[in-house]
Amino acid sequence: MTAPIMKFGRSDKAKLSTIQTERQAFLKSQRSHGLTGSVTAPGDKSISHRSLIFGALAEGVTAIQGLLEGEDVLATAQAMRQLGAKVRREDNDLWHVAGCGARGLQSPEKPIDFGNSGTGARLIIGALAPYALTAELTGDASLSKRPMGRVLDPLRKMGVTTDPSAQNHLPLTLTGQETLSPLSYTLPVPSAQVKSALLLAGLNIAGTTEIIEPEPTRDHTENMIRAFGGDLSVTENKDGHRVITLQGPLHLKASDVCVPGDPSSAAFPIVAALLTPGSDVTVKNVLLNPLRSGLYKTLQEMGADITFQNIREEAGEQVADLRARASTLQAVDVPADRAPSMIDEYPILAIAAATAQGRTMMRGLKELRVKESDRLDAMARGLEACGVTVEEGEDWLAVTGAHALPGGAKIASYMDHRIAMSFLTLGLISDAPITVDGADMIATSFPSYRETMRALGADIEPTQP
Questions:
Q1: pLDDT-based confidence at residue 19 (cuts at 50, 70, 90)
Q2: Same domain, 223 and 125
Q3: Residues 71 and 16 sit within 8 Å (Cβ to Cβ)
Q4: What Rg, from alpha-carbon coordinates, does the chain have?
Q5: Residues 217, 299: one domain?
Q6: Residue 3 domain-assigned?
Q7: What residues contact residue 332 under an 8 Å CB cut-off, 6+ apart?
Q8: What pLDDT, on a 0 to 100 scale, did the predictor assign at position 413?
Q9: Are the beta carbons of 26 and 435 closer than 8 angstroms?
Q10: Which of the residues 12, 72, 140, 344 is marked catalytic?
Q11: Of 13, 78, 130, 375, which has the fewest CB atoms closer than 10 Å, so is most exposed?
């Protein structure tokens, strides 16, 4: 059984309009039995953003297959159009990006609206830094509260300026500089977005850009620089830290991209299958990058019946089909150094922990405070409302599993797609239904979420507040 595929016409603007029309602000999930079937994970969001950006920076036409057509990625596509790239979607779901080539980006005629996309905003800020142009950048209410200083601070050291009123948040006006100074920078917190922004800036800076990572983060930007004909080195210093060195400027050439399935999105049907009695679900074409697979390693340590089938390599990334069957989970301690490889998956891991035997401790979670919401607080409050025992610290969360899950709560998602999908998963095994507000935000990363879950047998329906 395959999940229905949402079909749209040539224009991604039309698709975005369709998503917004069909979205439901409130969804309710209730006890389900025996989820079964095979579905395909939506395209990886991180790689989708980067394929559009690199395609726009390169010389020639890049073809992209499997692009995630969620709202965040569509916002990035529109941003690259505004900066001069020709981006179009064909009827066969193939995307083409005619790039601007070296130093070919243009000043946008109107503000660039990133919607809810922190990835798109931070990466494009970096890409624009070495251009002599001015761009006004905006976003929705949620994105406007999220910190941009972690990207802007090192870029300012390189010579970028912003309007004083911005205070490290959107909206802001960014003025790039063609003669930026290269930078050697040690990441104060593990952040692939900050690293990627600085590497994107370094592509058009004369000299050596060096990024030092005390903790390794997802390496899609490094992989994509190589795929588009660029060169960079990755070494380890005497402290055991990862050092990425790029000698600019680099002239990128168009390269076709096949986007694998997003492991963060695949996590929701996988965990739903593990927790729902009688389930046997396969999610096909899931990215297995070792810097993204921390959740699946943790789940296996908890006793999850997950098998990796048809392991293969596509576009330089390892992918596989993941089969998950209903399992009895045991609590574990998740080490802090695993956080960078699963930072987006802690909300759904907390749901799994709510069913595990014992107390699951998750450490190193400070980064969750500055995601689409304060995910640490949102999960703690939501689990408490559903009758789960939770302890919360500044950078840790402990969840004690329960045999009975009362549910019955109305959960505030705080406009966060992963909070919404996590609690809808919990509703599938709770005594009483769980209602989630702000479920419209799910479209930012997983537009076909409800259709996919219903195809597997999950009872998830629109409801009233």
A1: very low
A2: yes
A3: yes
A4: 21
A5: no
A6: no
A7: 298, 301, 302, 356, 360, 361
A8: 94
A9: yes
A10: 344
A11: 13
User: Which pLDDT value is given to residue 315?
Assistant: 64
Domain CATH code at residue 415:
3.65.10.10
Q: In whole angstroms, what is the distance from residue 155 CA to residue 152 CA? A: 5
β-strand pairing of 410-411 with 434-436? parallel
Which segment of 10-24, 153-167, 311-325, 367-381 scores lowest on mean pLDDT?
10-24
Tell me how far apart the alpha carbons of residues 317 and 320 are, in angstroms, rounded to a whole number: 10
The total number of structural domains that make up the chain: 2
Question: By C-alpha distance, which of 148, 295, 287, 267 is closest to 223?
Answer: 287
Is-catalytic flag, 239? no
- Asked whether the beta carbons of 277 and 328 are under 8 A apart, the reply is no
Residue 10 burial (10 A CB sphere; 0-12, 13-18, 19+): exposed
Contact 332, 360 (CB under 8 A): yes
In terms of Cα–Cα distance, which of 146, 149, 175 is closest to 162?
175
167 CB-near residues (< 8 Å, 6+ apart): none
- Helix (H) or strand (E) segment spanning residue 92: none
